[in-house]
């Protein structure tokens, strides 16, 4: 395989991952596989390099969602702060500790998430409940843990985020995806700095992957804001992503 063919596979795979990340999550399962198995990066360098495309994708999708009135940062700032603080802590751990042991239990977490998504599906298709006020002593530790996970490993972060925001905070799935992109982009910029400081980023390969992820995220965000049935599509994509991830983790 020529270098050009390798990079073409990387960009196409990243484009698909960008779309999946925007509507559901776990697109990093694709990009991390490409970075390690196709491009040959060590796992810790792949983890850092992957964050470049995640940031550019999130920046593009956040702009589209904001432009179309689906991203309200002021309304949800109380959710953003604990996630951001947790992500910083997780990022600091990620540059010093391997996450391979955590991956061993990841597949069982995916099973739990699939059950959570399939039970009472109408909860995933409702509008944001503006009257709901979660207890601070519940959502702050929960969102801190969510951010810690995202800063540490990232893979599957989008799925966790949607489950917590849709089921726990009673947000619409499209608005949850919009907030997800903004929050992940915000803390990823800082995490990139942490990985770069430790020399754990391949900037050339990171930017190549970022091209595909950004295009995929941008186009998918436009679809999500223009198509009336986007919430149903996002829900079904989430189910497909979870089933595919579980199949890969248990069978291959």
Automatic annotation (TrEMBL):
Pfam families: TauE. The chain crosses the membrane at residues 7-35, 79-97, 104-121, 136-167, 179-197, 203-221, 233-251. Its main location: membrane. Keywords: Cell membrane, Membrane, Transmembrane, Transmembrane helix, Transport. It is found in: Cell membrane. InterPro entries: TM_pro_TauE-like, TSUP. It is a multi-pass membrane protein. One of its GO terms (cellular component) is plasma membrane. The keyword Isomerase does not apply. Belongs to the 4-toluene sulfonate uptake permease (TSUP) (TC 2.A.102) family. This is Probable membrane transporter protein. It comes from Dokdonia donghaensis DSW-1.
